[in-house]
Amino acid sequence: MIESNQPTPLQRPQLALQRIRELRTRRRWMRAMTGGFRWLVVVIAAGIAMFLLDWVADLPWALRVAQIVAVLILLLITFRAILLAARTPATEDQLASMVETASGELEDALITAVQLTDPNNPRRHLYNPALIEQTVTLAEQRMHELRPGRLLSWSRMWAAMGLLLILAVPAVSGSYLRPELARTFFARNILLQGDLWPRSYELVVLSPVNTDLVVAKGTSLVVDIQKNRGGNARAYLAVRFPAQEGRRELREELTLDRKGESGFRHVFQNLQRDIEFRVECGDYTGRLYSIRVRARPRVEEIELYYEFPEYTGLSSNSEAASVRSGHVKAPTGTRVEFLAHTSIDVTRAVRVEGRPSGDEELFIESEVAIEDGRTLRGSFVAEENGRWWISLDSEQGFANDNPIVWRIAVIPDRSPEVTIEEPGQNIEITPRALLDLSIRVLDDYGVNSGKLIFSPELEGEWEPKEIALDQIGRVEGTSTEASQALQIDLSTWGLSAGQRVQYHATALDALEQIGSSRTWILSVLSEEELERVTQDELTLLKERLEETFTVQREVRRELEDVRDALSSGEEASTQAPIVRHARNGQDRVSTRVEDAAERLATISQRLIRNRMSDAQELAWIQELKERIDALGTEKITPARQALDQLATRSASGEATTEDADQTLDAVRRVERGLSDVVSDLQEWGDLRTVIRKLEELLRSEKDLENRIEDKVRESLGGDKPEGDQR
Known about the structure:
Elements: H1 14-57, H2 61-87, H3 92-102, H4 109-116, H5 129-145, H6 155-177, H7 179-189, E1 202-207, E2 212-216, E3 221-229, E4 235-241, E5 250-255, E6 257-258, E7 263-268, E8 275-281, E9 284-285, E10 289-294, E11 299-307, E12 328-331, E13 334-342, E14 346-357, E15 360-367, E16 369-371, E17 375-382, E18 386-394, E19 406-411, E20 417-422, E21 427-429, E22 434-442, E23 447-456, E24 465-468, E25 481-489, E26 500-509, E27 514-516, E28 520-524, H8 527-567, H9 576-609, H10 616-651, H11 657-715
Parallel strand pairs: 2-10, 12-19, 21-28
Antiparallel strand pairs: 1-3, 3-7, 4-5, 4-8, 6-7, 8-9, 8-10, 11-13, 13-17, 14-15, 14-18, 16-17, 18-19, 20-22, 22-25, 23-24, 23-26, 26-27, 26-28
């Protein structure tokens, strides 16, 4: 047989290798535990360092971010180093060498046996196989009694654990005793918030809640602060007003007012510009509060455009504003369009109208169109009296809490006002009278038609009559007042003495509202009865003028006394009361004379109206009226003026005898004129008395004839006398 050149395979030290594998597993586990404790030590140490550095230096946000990044990099590097140390396995040669070094009993037998029996070791062919086998046998024998686990020390792990406890116990205790520090550290260095470190003084801002706040201009901001810890140091606000709208930046310190035992308060009243502030007290510095002040929306300009309803007849102008104010005053049913401009951009606008409703107020809301952010356009119908305003919301969410309130005054279309101006009273007429009437109609916007209505006072005497008033109807254009005069011939109506006719006028406007005048009465008299009424009125007038004449004589006598007193040298001022009394008497005379002229005019018009122009008294009455008118204008008026002048001069003590004589002459002329009028009336009264007695005699004679005739008829047996052929 040919001898083979292949080396004989050597038996490896199985027990030694098993012990080495156990050693490798145990070594990896111990390294992992020790590395974990060491990494936790690094974490806690880094956290403590971050806490101390930020607490002492109060790092700004940028440095805190840089610190966190640096700590994270450190933790990643240490974690990677520990992880690689735990995961990298030791070779058999390294472990064998470690065992050889730790135990002198092996005398390099273990390392030799491991290395020379390794199939991958190229140097193993240089040694005698028998010698190698002996070395393996020796290593196996000695490793059988040796426990490799005793070669590993736990001192590093216990040292890392002890260091971990040394760092963790103060950190945990501090977090328990001062939890606010832990919360602040977490907020500042983990969440990167702006919380401030608590100091010896700790204050809490209760109001406002938000550090960034937007408030309305003109409002008040209440700052309420509570002190949780600290002494009696002064608390104040460090306030900064930023430069804004041409105003320069301002800084100031405002001392806080105490509120109770551990509270402070300050009120920023009527805020007009942005403001920043923070609370400071002792070593405490609070967070920065930024208050932005924004204006509330308001209506700066408003224009109203009226579209009048058809019944008014008014023209509407939609191009030019009817009113440059929000107050509405328009006829009922007018459509009002409004165009308003606000001070700032708004996001919502609502028109609110308040109408009275019993003891409460009814509110009606309607959306308003917004154009270009600041222009409002809308419309509504003016139906009832009330008030209205526009509620606005700005982009910042502010509302105009105190909006401008405008009044709505609705002008109702009232019923036509109808007046019968002539005759304007209850009158007496004869069946053949000519009735002159004058009717006036007033309406807000004009009437469409009108009529006169006559009806008997006692139903059924005759058919009622209606007469159209053609001249008071609506004509082209707007006419709020109309009148019409007409004359009615009553001779065709078939009236008889003793009847009473009631009449009134009505008018109808565009809304079909009816206006009616007062109802007047026409008393139908015979001509004889009307003459007697005329004579009775003249008799009363005569008596009235006789009384007036008596007053005039008293005025003259008082003036004669005044003249005599002035002639005897008495002071003029002492006669002033008498002159004033005489002047008042002359005023009464003037009033009564004017009333007499009016009565005569009424009597004359009545005679003419009733077609009694041939009456005997008419010419005499007209002449008498002219005389009384002349008396008033030519004599009474100068007399009153003279009395006024005399009264003025008497009061000032300047009246003379000549003044009294002139006034007395004027008064005497009035007395003579009035005496003539009274004399004429007395003569007429005496004449009428004679005529009345003659009429009574004639009636008595007629009655006597009738009685004689009746006696003769009775004596003849009821037959008429031969000469009586009626």
